[in-house]
Amino acid sequence: MYENSGIQGSLAETGWNGEHRTKNRWKTIGKILLLTGAVAGAVLLGKWALHFDAGAYTQAVLDAAYRDERENYQKLTGNSDADVEKLFQKNLDATMDEFQTIKLSEAQEENYRALFQDILKQVRYTVGEVTAQKGGNYAVQVEVEPMTLFDDTYDAFQNQAESYARKVTDEVLNGGQMPEEQEIQSQVYQIYYDVLRDALDSGVKYGKAQIVTLHVNRKKDGGYEIPENDITALNEKLISREKLE
């Protein structure tokens, strides 16, 4: 593939390899969804127990977690706007900590943070039928249309990353200096950001709708919560990753 195996190895070690890095970034973005959903779903609603609407609660939790729409969530929980904002931002902070070992520039970190927020806000779900169960619990059906952003951009990122690798290889073989590891990683992550951002801004596509059941369980203290494993199951359906498995 390349004339100099030493250069090829250095590039692979420093992160130009598209398939490896694409899958790692999916795991990071998946973690964003898990954190925001799980934390929001654990908020109690004790004072609303007598007139509890499981469908409205589920809608409010999902809207606050994914779309950063806070009004209904505030009304149900009694939390202030600042408190709900802190929940949303805290989870994004936790996810951005994953990038510390990559040493992105400050501008890249800000760009990725904004990208993650925009991705979350465009996930598509519809809260449907609610079924009462024993013990004051509920089962809520949520129709999910999986976003295909990562499947749709996979090949484009692979091609651009490989093009960058060939460019660096050619420059080095012609007497140029091998870029530092940080520079290579930064460039690869810039390529990945640009591909995702362009696709997101051009209009996101969605796959065939699927049904996920979320359980809204009553706690001993009278409050309600959505179990973390249900949120995890929902997250796995919100964004398609067929090409990343």
Helix content: 55-70%
**Terminal Cα span:** 25 Å
Tally of domains: 1
SSE order, as H and E? HHHHHHEEHHEEH
How can the largest sheet be summarized?
Answer: 4 strands, antiparallel
**Structural class label:** alpha+beta
Across the major sheet, the strand order is 1-2-3-4
- Please state the overall shape, judged from the principal axes of the Cα atoms: elongated
Strand content: 5-15%
Features:
245 residues; alpha+beta; 4-stranded antiparallel beta sheet; 9 helices; disordered N terminus
Would you write up a description of this structure?
The chain has 245 residues and is an alpha+beta fold. α2 runs antiparallel to α5 (81-96) and α6 runs parallel beside α8 (181-202). The chain contains 9 helices and 4 strands, in the order ααααααββααββα. Helix content is 59%, strand content 11%. A hairpin with a 5-residue loop joins β3 (210-218) and β4 (224-225). Mean pLDDT is 78; it is low at 1-6 and 30-47.
List the helices and strands and how they pair.
Layout: H1 5-14, H2 18-41, H3 54-67, H4 71-77, H5 81-96, H6 106-121, E1 124-132, E2 138-145, H7 149-173, H8 181-202, E3 210-218, E4 224-225, H9 228-238
Antiparallel strand pairs: 1-2, 2-3, 3-4
Helix pairs in contact: 1-8, 2-3, 2-5, 2-7, 2-9, 3-4, 6-8, 7-8
In short, what is this structure?
The chain is α+β, with helices and mostly antiparallel strands.
